């Protein structure tokens, strides 16, 4: 039996957290879903709790304090974490953000869809491996 994946969402917006959670519940109730409201909290959990190693990290770019780009750079510096796929999950659709996060090691750039059904479809593809994304260096 294949173990259900663990996802970490790093996003400060409660509405976006809820929409993401509902989308995941529509895919499978077995998915382990952890939310961090900011990058500092997420990095503490990822570095201090050696038992916690998510299968995917979904990361918003626009957050107070440490930005998503800074957080991505910190994640990719960690030997234990650098191979975890990081999916940028943001309202931005700017080419500059896409290029910057790709250079920092993001595996996929997902502009937050306005329709939950689109989000469900994209998440299914990512989780099933059907959606191919760039392998980070």
From TrEMBL:
It holds the Pfam family Response_reg. Gene3D superfamilies: 3.40.50.2300. This is Response regulator receiver domain-containing protein. The keyword Protein biosynthesis does not apply. It comes from Parafilimonas terrae. PROSITE patterns: RESPONSE_REGULATORY. Keywords: Phosphoprotein. SUPFAM superfamilies: CheY-like. Residues 6-127 form the Response regulatory domain. One of its GO terms (biological process) is phosphorelay signal transduction system. The modification 4-aspartylphosphate is found at residue 60. SMART domains: REC (SM00448).
């Amino acid at each position: 039996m294949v173990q259900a994946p663990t996802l970490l969402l790093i996003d400060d917006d409660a509405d976006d957290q809820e929409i993401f959670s509902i989308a995941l519940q529509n895919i499978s109730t077995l998915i382990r879903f952890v939310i961090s409201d900011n990058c500092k909290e997420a990095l503490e959990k990822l570095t201090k709790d050696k038992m916690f190693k998510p299968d995917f990290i979904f990361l918003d770019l626009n957050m107070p304090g440490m930005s998503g780009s800074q957080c991505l750079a910190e994640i990719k510096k960690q030997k234990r974490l650098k191979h975890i796929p990081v999916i940028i999950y943001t309202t931005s659709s700017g080419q500059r953000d896409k290029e910057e996060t790709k250079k920092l090691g993001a595996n996929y750039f997902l502009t937050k869809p306005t329709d939950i059904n689109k989000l469900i479809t994209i998440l299914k593809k990512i989780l099933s491996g059907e959606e191919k994304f760039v392998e980070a260096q």
